[in-house]
Amino acid sequence: MKKVLKGLLLSLLALGVGYVAISLPFNLFNTLSDAAMEVIFIGELVIYSAVGGIFLLVNENQKTQKRKAEQRHIERKEKIARVQTDWYDLAA
């Protein structure tokens, strides 16, 4: 239930931000000067780049954590196998 609510909230937020990001320049086109429109355009590019960068950082962090967890799992499995072999050698 929590995942569904989170997904719904993110979808609605994405739709809202997308609508504002697309409609804002068109609505301001006739009311602002060329210099102001350039500033808004550059601002949008900066915002899009920042959001994309954050997404890439989070995605890379998740991949790194997954690799570390897999490595710990492999090391734990090897340690268990080593301990079992040591016990068998000790028992023999």
Spatial shape: elongated
**DSSP strand (E) fraction?**
under 5%
- End-to-end Cα distance, whole Å, is 54 Å
Largest sheet composition: none
Helix content: over 70%
Radius of gyration: 26 Å
Query: What's the rounded overall pLDDT mean?
Result: 87
Structural class: mainly alpha
Unreliably modeled segments: none
Q: Provide a count of the helices.
A: 2
- Please report the total strand number as a whole number: 0
Please write the string of helix (H) and strand (E) elements.
Answer: HH
Structure description:
The chain is mostly helical and 92 residues long. 92% of the residues lie in helices and 0% in strands. It has two helices and no strands. The radius of gyration is 26 Å and the shape is elongated. It starts with a helix and ends with a helix. The relative contact order is 0.05.
Present the secondary structure layout:
Blueprint: H1 2-28, H2 34-91
Brief account:
By secondary structure, this protein is mostly helical.
Note the main attributes of this structure.
92 residues; mainly alpha
